[in-house]
Write a structure and sequence with these properties.
The complex is a heterodimer.
Chain A (H helix, E strand, L loop, with lengths): L9 E10 L2 E11 L4 E5 L6 H8 L7 E6 L2 E2 L7 H7 E4 L11 H11 L5 H14 L15 H13 L5 E5 L7 H16 L3 E5 L3 H7 L2 E6 L2 E6 L1 H6 L4 H10 L1
Parallel strand pairs in A: 3-8, 3-9, 6-7, 7-8
Antiparallel strand pairs in A: 1-2, 1-4, 4-5, 9-10
Helix pairs in contact in A: 3-4, 3-5, 4-5, 5-6
Chain B lengths: L32 H8 L4 H11 L13 H45 L4 H15 L3 H11 L3 E4 L2 E4 L2 H26 L3 H9 L4 H31 L11 H11 L7 H33 L1
Classes of the chains: A alpha/beta, B mainly alpha.
């Protein structure tokens, strides 16, 4: 089955996921079109992170289906490496490789996985580091960078694989308030460039400004979704209203 | 009466008891107990040992008219080149080869323990536990008695001398302990590093060799050296099996000098001293490396 741009690039249908007896996702469905920015928000423990970790097969699911560019993600014979070349991921705790410099972190995957030419990769890595506004930090080790800087290196590292979809798992949750902004600006620029982004976030202002579509999850289901305007101003479900009243 | 707090000049405003912060008397075990113990010995211990050795024979002098303290040390002096050149060199050769074989096998076994293939993982775990928890002497006897004294491959006959068998026997427990060091070091790297590598489409092999092992390699060095020191101290055990290392040759030297009891303390004291001289710097270096790597991590 070949995928075309008018079909959802990421599609979840009735996804169920349990950890042992604990059912974390109880039938989640959502579609993401190419170039869209999706924000998933909700109280902690509502399964947001689990949800996006299923999209690049870091977690498996028990029922339902997830497709990326028309390809079933959770098929046992799927080449996970092929999937992960298409889907980049940025984590809450950055997870940079501490024994490599910033630019080496960015260069590693294209060199090892895509077996691209070293010179080419380095040229592109420098451009990416410039793009996340970290010129001059190429040769710093992660331990020498601030949280916000590390997170931007992590974004550049994912972008180096030229993914079609980027997943952001609460990427600003571990940062100081003053460095949150620099990371959000980077993501905003990415979105403006047309990158498909799926974010789990607690930054409501950011979600309102950048997202094309907002999903609100609670206790493993999607309670409500809509455009930022309808979601924030005309929320219908009492759970959504309660959550928003606590946060805004 | 209001309590006086030592070092505080401001008058106390309360006579309530002051709760001091809790001080532990001991730290968590570091896994390098042997090196810590050895490195904590004062270097002067060696001189104390030598002084004790030098003074000791005076008491037995009266019982045997033949040999004086001076004679005993003269005898030791005559045997010294032989005891070091043949005996202690053999000890070092045995310890080096044992460590080499034990490390190579132990690394494979340790990687086997974290294999995603559950059969390999269980098998490696089992082998590790068996050899880690068996008495060394029993392993030595089994290897000594079960190995052929020569191996025939086609027309060529390769002799297997006793000391080679001793190396194999000692390498088994070393292998098992290195296996645990490797497994422990790999598990000490946060799982988030595995996830980050996975999400960048690294294969398991690439993740292990390019991301995980480079991060924990340094952490393995101090415990590895700790085991080398333990092994070196344990090598005299092979003298029981007739391998001609330093302890065995010392006994032979005493016999060649007519078994005078005055010789015992100078000769065995020398063996003790040479082991101390060899292992002590290793232990000091191990503890220093441990501290340095601990700060960096």
């Amino acid at each position: 089955m070949s995928w075309t741009v008018d079909q959802p690039i990421v599609s979840l249908k009735n996804v169920h996921k349990s950890f042992g007896d604990l059912e974390v996702l109880k039938g989640v469905s959502l579609d993401v079109m190419k170039g869209e920015v999706i924000c998933i928000i909700g109280p902690s423990g509502s399964g947001k992170s689990t949800l996006i970790r299923c999209i690049n097969a870091l977690n498996d699911i028990q029922k339902g289906s997830i497709t990326v560019e028309g390809q079933e993600v959770q098929k046992p014979d799927l080449d996970k490496l092929e999937l992960r070349k298409k889907v980049g991921m940025v984590f809450q705790q950055y997870n940079l490789f501490p024994h490599k410099t910033a630019i080496e972190n960015v260069m590693m995957a294209p060199l090892l996985v895509l077996k691209q030419d070293t010179e080419e990769v380095e040229k592109r890595a420098r451009l990416l580091i410039k793009k996340v506004r970290l010129e001059g930090k190429e040769d710093s080790y992660p331990g020498e960078l601030s949280g916000g800087q590390q997170q931007r290196v992590a974004i550049a590292r994912s972008l180096a694989m030229n993914p079609d979809v980027m997943l952001f798992d609460e990427v600003t949750a571990a940062l100081d308030p003053e460095t949150v902004k620099e990371v959000l600006v980077t993501i905003k620029e990415l979105a403006a460039d047309g990158m498909t982004c799926i974010l789990v976030t607690h930054e409501m202002g950011f979600a309102r400004e950048v997202a094309d579509h907002i999903y609100f999850t609670d206790r493993g289901i999607i309670v409500e979704h809509g455009s930022p305007k309808t979601f924030f101003d005309e929320a219908k479900d009492p759970r959504t209203k309660e959550f928003l009243s606590q946060i805004l | 009466m209001k309590a006086v707090i030592p070092g505080v000049t401001t008058k106390a405003t309360t006579d309530l008891p002051v709760l001091h912060s809790h001080k532990t008397l001991y730290g968590a075990p570091s896994g390098l107990e042997f090196s810590h113990w050895l490195a904590n010995i004062s270097p002067w211990t060696l001189f104390l040992m030598l002084a004790a050795v030098a003074l000791w024979p005076i008491t037995v002098l009266a019982q045997d008219g033949g040999v004086t303290t001076l004679d005993a040390f003269k005898a030791l002096w005559r045997w010294l080149p032989f005891l070091i050149g043949n005996g202690f060199v053999m000890t070092i050769v045995i310890s080096f080869l044992t460590m080499l074989i034990g490390t190579v096998l132990g690394v494979f076994l340790g990687l086997g323990q974290i294999s995603p293939n559950s059969f390999i993982a269980r098998f490696s775990w089992f082998i590790t536990q068996v050899f880690r928890n068996s008495p060394w002497l029993v392993l030595l006897f089994i290897v000594m008695l079960s190995f052929p004294f020569e191996i025939q491959i086609g027309d060529t006959i390769i002799p297997v001398p006793d000391w080679m068998k001793a190396v194999i026997g000692l390498a088994l427990p070393i292998m098992a302990n290195i296996s645990e060091i490797v497994r422990g070091a790999i598990n000490s790297v946060p799982t988030a590093q595995w996830e980050a590598s996975e999400s960048l489409a690294f294969s398991r092999h690439q993740t292990l060799f390019k991301v995980i092992l480079p991060q924990c390699f340094k952490r393995m060095i101090p415990p590895w050296m700790n085991w080398y020191a333990i092994l070196t101290m344990a090598t005299p055990i092979v003298s029981i099996l007739g391998v001609e290392e330093v302890l065995n040759l010392t006994r032979q030297a005493i016999e060649a000098e007519d078994n005078h009891p005055e010789l015992l303390v100078p000769f065995y004291g020398f063996v003790l001293a040479i082991f101390f001289l060899y292992s002590y710097p290793i232990a000091r270096f191990t503890v220093r490396l441990e501290k340095r790597f601990a700060l960096k991590q």
